[in-house]
Design brief:
heterodimer; A: 80 residues; mainly alpha; Non-ribosomal Peptide Synthetase Peptidyl Carrier Protein, Chain A; globular; B: 559 residues; alpha/beta; Rossmann fold; Aminopeptidase; 3 domains; 8-stranded mixed β-sheet; 6-stranded parallel β-sheet; 19 strands; 19% strand
């Protein structure tokens, strides 16, 4: 999966999570999105795990605080 | 609830559901709100967030209120009108669950919640194969059976299907639950499609199913009896239909076919398990499906909105929907999906059996014999030959569920349209000065079970009759007046009363009740919402039970 494909999928899941359509170029952070609360964050993690077939530790979950960080983390887990 | 198995419903029927796919679904319009209050000791939110797409199928929109995590089930803040859902991680109680005192404590908490609230209570059992869990789950069934409108949400089957995937301890602290994502979704599916609709909605009374490409692959008229293919899934569909029939759901065939071909299919194909006698009604011919559906409804003596129609032709489905907008519909895309929805269609599964349930099908068969007798005999002879026996019980708690069912479901012969819930009926049964009478009927053809309910209360020297409900299965035997007169005369004598006050509410279909009330009281103008007061001594038909050729007895006699 290319970074671009990962980005597109993450944008899609983040849009579901925060309840508005976000664009590919937009950087979304937990601090800037009140709708991205702790429950939504867990739901997002579950959807990311479903979508990409990856698993996150509790420490990793806590660190996924922006769209960029999520894309980087998934890219890292998918790296050969 | 009109039609499932559109493309969106394929998502809900998928063997492996994804959270994102569910959260992408758009909320349909015109849903009825249902308030849910969750009592939990873990993050039920991961179930609750994917619950709505399942409830939408039943036409329900959930409004969920969460309290704090509470192992003690203190129920400190309660919305009495909401549906109460108790879902616990029982492992958190550790060694305590070994003890009988834990069962007693749990029963006490449920009783406490029952006293505080009016709506249904749904309580999940313990998803585990441990002996402790088995013991607790057995006790829970008993506790739920002993309390009105308390339903067990069975999680064991999901646990057994998923086994190691049901729990996922990884990151349990962060998630707030040991349940896996897949388990949360499966639990939401069972709660939203089956458990909650069956606690909230009246049950679908019949399934009318198409033949070609629904009960088998192929077209009977073209492929012939030997040419149609009956797969293992088709066999499973037939077994599900058998199960529903055992539970009191009528089966019917609604098909454009030659009836003789269908009979031959049943006779010649041993792998076609259903036989003509299993169907309580059929419309097999060349008339339109909407007309065929009306014919089936007439044969079953129920409304078209109580019949689930299953058909593989989207055009036929659309045609039925255009004429009968409230008929539940299932577009059969294939046998696997049909099988899934027969097990999960809202308001079809998950109902508790009551004494009347298994009697419905035999009673309908008997009604045809009664019709024949009515043609050959008339008036008193008909009643005499019917050998009718009526059995009465006053304030019988064992009949609580059936009495509530009569109040809620009876549309034609219902004087007050009070729609008492099981909880309200239970309270009335215990309240001083309240008289709730059940009437059971048996005749030479069959036992109809409890077919009548009278809800009344004593007010001074007056009996206020808030509702008389008589099942449509008992109508047409001309016994309504003697049946009700006997019940009332016993209560009048017991309390030394002088007059009756009948509450009447007009509904869309209760003209038979209005006509009976007019005739029984002798009062010509009975308005919607009125209280018709008449001295007992002036009731023209008050002694009719003394002369009617009917056997009457009290099982629980008023002292």
């Amino acid at each position: 999966m290319t970074r671009c494909q990962i980005q597109a999928a993450v944008v899609n899941l983040l849009s579901i999570t925060i309840g508005r359509q976000i664009t590919k170029t937009e950087v979304v952070t937990r601090d800037s999105e009140p709708a991205w609360d702790s429950l939504k964050h867990i739901e997002l993690i579950l959807m990311l795990e479903e979508q990409f077939g990856v698993q996150f530790s509790e420490k990793e979950m806590a660190a996924l605080r922006s769209s960029d960080k999520i894309v980087n983390a998934i890219e890292g887990k998918n790296a050969p | 609830m009109t039609m499932v198995n559109t493309i969106e419903d394929e998502v809900r029927a998928a063997p492996s559901l994804k959270r994102a796919d569910l959260l992408r679904l758009a909320e349909p319009p015109d849903l009825s709100p249902v308030h849910l209050q969750i009592h939990r000791n873990y993050a039920f939110e991961l179930i609750g967030s994917v619950l709505p797409p399942f409830l939408w199928v039943a036409g329900l929109k959930s409004i969920i209120a969460y309290g704090v995590y509470d192992d003690t089930l203190s129920f400190s803040q309660i919305d009495p009108a909401a549906v109460q859902i108790i879902s616990l991680d029982f492992e958190r109680y550790g060694e305590q669950t070994h003890m009988a005192s834990f069962h007693d404590w749990f029963a006490g908490r449920l009783e406490n919640l029952r006293i505080k609230t009016e709506g249904p209570i749904v309580v999940s059992n313990w998803p585990s194969e441990s002996p402790n869990a088995a013991r607790f789950n057995l006790e829970l069934e008993k506790i739920a059976d002993s309390l009105p409108s308390v339903f067990v949400w069975d999680t064991i089957e999901i646990f057994r299907d998923m086994r190691a995937e049901f729990f996922n301890e990884r990151a349990a602290a962060a998630k707030g639950t040991r349940l896996s994502n897949c388990a949360c979704i499966e639990l939401a599916r069972s709660l939203g499609l089956v458990r909650l609709p069956s606690a909230l909605l009246p049950r679908i009374k019949a399934v009318a199913i198409d033949l070609d490409n629904t009960l088998y692959d192929g077209v009977l008229g073209e492929d012939g009896v030997e040419g149609v293919h009956i797969s293992a899934e088709h066999g499973a569909i037939q077994k599900e239909l058998f199960r529903l029939r055992e539970e009191g759901v009528f089966l019917a065939i609604l098909s454009k076919n030659d009836e003789r071909d269908f009979v031959q299919l049943c006779q010649k194909r041993s792998d076609f398990l259903l036989k003509p006698e299993h169907f309580s009604a059929t419309s097999i011919g060349w008339q339109t499906k909407p007309k065929g559906l009306v014919r089936i409804a007439e044969q079953l003596r129920i409304g078209v909105d109580s019949i689930l129609v299953i058909d593989d032709d989207s055009g036929e489905i659309a045609q039925i929907r255009a004429v009968h907008a409230n008929t539940p519909l299932l577009y059969s895309r294939g046998p696997e999906q049909t099988l899934f929805w027969l097990r999960h269609y809202p308001a079809l599964n998950g109902y508790r059996a009551n004494s009347a349930t298994p009697l419905r099908i035999s009673d309908l068969k008997a009604s045809r014999q009664r019709d024949l007798l009515r043609v050959s005999a008339s008036g008193t002879d008909y009643l005499r030959e019917m050998q009718i026996e009526l059995t009465y019980a006053l304030n019988s708690m064992s009949s609580c569920a059936r009495l509530a069912e009569l109040s809620q479901k009876t549309n034609q012969f219902n004087t007050g349209l009070q729609r008492f819930s099981e909880v309200e009926v239970a309270r009335r049964l215990e309240a001083p000065g309240h008289c709730t009478i059940s009437v059971s009927m048996r005749d030479r053809f069959c036992d109809s079970g409890i077919i009548g309910a009278i809800f009344a209360r004593v007010d001074g020297d007056r009996l206020v009759i808030e509702e008389v409900s008589v099942s449509c299965r008992a109508l047409g035997r001309n016994v309504e007046s003697p049946m009700i007169a006997l019940a009332l005369s016993q209560v009048i004598d017991r309390y030394g009363l002088r007059e009756l006050a009948f509450l009447f509410r007009k509904g869309p279909r209760n003209l038979p009740a209005h006509m009976w009330l007019t005739s029984f009281t002798g009062v010509q103008h009975i308005a919607d919402g009125s209280l018709t007061i008449v001295p007992w001594e002036t009731i023209p038909q008050r002694n009719e039970h003394l002369s009617a050729p009917i056997t009457l007895r009290w099982e629980q006699i008023p002292a």
